[in-house]
């Protein structure tokens, strides 16, 4: 009986050891593929969506921004540039920076085409970015205030 028990314990120990080694090997092989490396320095065209706050529904503001966005990666930092259409109607455009909504920096303005380019830094392009905009249409006395989120595709 002892011989049977020892053989059973030995067999179980070997089986468990082999299973652990195989599991470790599988994770060692898969782990490098699941970790996303930071994008190399450069300028990228990245598609994005403007979503209603805390949803996956497209916001009305989405139609006021051109696509794709220009993402400039330098020294591990991501700077996003968006072109705002109907610039005269978008009176405010803010993006969350360190937990606070701040005006996006205006890079250029094209009054002939009624557009402007704004830029802001984004720490993680894989996370939704909180933003806020106001659309004012004086002719009809409308002011819309939009809490939105920007969701970028992968570089």
UniProtKB/TrEMBL annotation:
UniProt subcellular location: Secreted, Cell wall
Signal peptide: 1-37
One Pfam family hit: NEAT
Keyword Signal: yes
Topological relation to the membrane, as annotated: Peptidoglycan-anchor
Domain NEAT positions: 39-155
Alphabetically ordered keywords of this record: Cell wall, Peptidoglycan-anchor, Secreted, Signal
CDD domains assigned: NEAT (cd06920)
SUPFAM superfamilies tied to this protein: NEAT domain-like
PROSITE patterns, sorted: NEAT (PS50978)
Annotated protein name in UniProt: Cell surface protein
Originating species: Paenibacillus terrae
Lineage: Bacteria, Bacillati, Bacillota, Bacilli, Bacillales
């Amino acid at each position: 009986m002892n011989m049977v028990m020892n053989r059973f314990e030995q067999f179980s120990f070997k089986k468990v050891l082999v299973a652990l080694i195989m599991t470790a090997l599988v994770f060692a092989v898969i782990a490098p593929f699941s970790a996303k490396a930071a994008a190399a320095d450069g300028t990228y065209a990245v598609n994005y969506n403007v979503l209603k706050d805390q949803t996956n529904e497209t916001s009305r503001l989405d139609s006021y921004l051109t696509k794709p966005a220009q993402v400039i990666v330098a020294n591990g930092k991501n700077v996003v540039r968006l072109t705002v259409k109907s610039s005269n109607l978008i009176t405010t455009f803010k993006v969350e920076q360190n937990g606070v909504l701040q005006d996006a920096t205006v890079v250029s303005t094209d009054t002939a085409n009624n557009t402007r380019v704004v830029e802001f830094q984004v720490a993680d392009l894989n996370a939704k970015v909180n933003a806020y905009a106001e659309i004012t249409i004086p002719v009809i006395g409308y002011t819309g205030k939009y809490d939105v989120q920007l969701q970028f595709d992968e570089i």
